[in-house]
Specification:
With about 160 residues, the chain is an alpha+beta fold. Helix content is about 40%, strand content about 20%. It has seven helices and four strands. A hairpin with a 6-residue loop joins strand 2 (about 90-95) and strand 3 (about 105-110).
């Protein structure tokens, strides 16, 4: 991936609805080579899809919870079971395998504290092998970006 591919990605992260003409102008290419590069990035799986960024509160899910999970044991079976089951839980938007005192960090969204309590009692705790759960509620979002930072050593070269 070169500096132009990175420029294309940053522009698409900022506005995925750009026309190919507008995108090509922003990255300094003619439309045909720009489209070829975009298609190549999609084919290779670098660009994995396009989505709308929606205001979470207006949608009706004002509560963000970061939930730390520690498994009882770090066996292959428990890890596989946990990771498979979180895939099917809609309230879990993100799940990261961690180092340190927790095994996983999850980002959960909810419409209310009551719904979050129900989620914990009826969904999350039914996953086998969970040892401890610790919740941290957010007061608000200070910064949330959808674009990666520039990589100076690549962009200076291009």
């Amino acid at each position: 991936m070169d500096a132009i591919d990175r420029k294309i990605i940053r522009e698409l992260q900022a506005d995925a609805r750009l026309t190919n003409q507008d995108l090509s102008e922003r990255v300094g290419l003619s439309p045909s080579p720009c489209l070829r590069r975009v298609r190549n990035l999609e084919r290779k799986g670098t660009v994995q899809g396009y989505t709308a960024i929606v205001d979470q509160e207006q949608y009706g899910l004002p509560i963000n919870v970061f939930l730390s999970v520690r498994l009882e044991k770090q066996t292959q079976e428990l890890i596989k079971t946990f990771e498979q089951q979180v895939q099917d839980i809609d309230e879990i938007l993100e799940c990261y395998l961690m180092t340190g005192s927790s095994d996983y960090l999850l980002r959960i969204v909810s419409d209310s504290l009551k719904s979050y309590e129900r989620f914990i009692k009826e969904t999350l705790t039914r996953i086998p092998g969970i040892g401890t759960i610790e919740s941290a509620f957010t007061f608000g979002i200070v910064k949330k970006k959808t674009t990666f930072p520039r990589l100076a050593h690549f962009e200076d070269a291009g």
